[in-house]
């Protein structure tokens, strides 16, 4: 069964096309990575799939729910970690996660808060105002709110931002274990290393259109995901195939400072 299914998903703002005919299927238990330069449509895709934004055309199904007809059912069923979103500055991590527990309605809230604070290394900051936390600590709190209610499907936009290398490794391990238990994770990133290391299936989106999909484990010999996607972009007839996939020092797909929609 597919955890996520889309057909010709399109979003336009006047004459601007933010997403152009996206069709994909993500099976249950998949760790799916959606790669693309900033501004390519990754965030728009997540916002449509999580019921935050209505498409102009096309259909989608998330865990059997229609995010347009019943966005509340989708939001209740999934975990969401948007890019560059912090916990409320006027709450402590404990207060914020208690609020998440109240909204989600799960049991043993205090036990789960203690478990996730320990797992993500912010247990000593549980009663510190979020405005006084470092960027990395705030990211850890947001990761906790994503997984704390044990959803079957999680959407994550750039999960490793602001995390130190040790915590990045621990979060990667958790994401793998999460999918090994049969759950599904939809990961949006422009960092190739993250996709190559973590994902069981990777797709690339460019100029608001889905270009190609590949299982990183199927690459032959010295073939790199970057080379495969560059070839696919060139064959797709992109208006700017030379820069559609960029191999910078961090092997990222596009400039990190651009606005990603």
From TrEMBL:
Keywords on record: ATP-binding, Nucleotide-binding, Transport
Gene Ontology terms for molecular function: ATP binding
Domain ABC transporter: 4-232
Keyword DNA damage applies: no
UniProt xrefs under InterPro entries: AAA+_ATPase (IPR003593), ABC_transporter-like_ATP-bd (IPR003439), ABC_Transporter_VariousFunc (IPR051782), P-loop_NTPase (IPR027417)
Region of interest (Disordered), ranges: 234-261
Family matches, as PANTHER family: ABC TRANSPORTER ATP-BINDING PROTEIN ALBC-RELATED
Native organism: Halosimplex aquaticum
PROSITE patterns xrefs: ABC_TRANSPORTER_2
Protein name, per record: ABC transporter ATP-binding protein
């Amino acid at each position: 069964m597919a955890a996520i299914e889309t057909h010709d998903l399109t979003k336009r703002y006047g004459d601007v096309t933010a997403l152009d005919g996206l069709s994909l299927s993500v099976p249950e238990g998949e760790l799916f990575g959606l790669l693309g330069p900033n501004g390519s449509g990754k965030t728009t895709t997540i916002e449509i799939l999580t019921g935050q934004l209505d498409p102009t055309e096309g259909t989608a199904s998330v865990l059997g729910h229609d995010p347009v007809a019943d966005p509340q059912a989708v939001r209740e069923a999934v975990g969401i970690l948007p890019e560059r979103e912090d916990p409320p500055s006027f709450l402590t991590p404990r207060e914020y996660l208690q609020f998440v527990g109240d909204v989600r309605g799960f049991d043993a809230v205090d036990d789960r808060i203690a478990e996730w604070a320990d797992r993500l290394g912010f247990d000593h900051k549980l009663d510190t105002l979020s405005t006084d936390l470092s960027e990395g600590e705030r990211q850890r709190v947001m990761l906790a709110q994503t997984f704390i209610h044990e959803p079957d499907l999680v959407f994550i936009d750039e999960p490793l931002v602001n995390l130190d290398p040790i915590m990045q490794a621990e979060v990667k391990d958790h994401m793998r274990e999460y999918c090994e238990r049969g759950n599904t994770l939809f990961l949006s990133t422009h960092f190739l290393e993250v996709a190559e290391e973590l994902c069981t299936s990777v797709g690339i989106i460019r100029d608001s259109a889905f270009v190609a999909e590949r299982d990183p484990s199927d690459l032959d010999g010295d073939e790199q995901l970057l080379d495969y996607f560059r070839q696919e972009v060139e064959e797709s007839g992109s208006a700017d195939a030379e820069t559609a996939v960029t191999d910078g020092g961090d092997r990222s797909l596009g400039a990190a400072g651009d606005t990603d929609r």
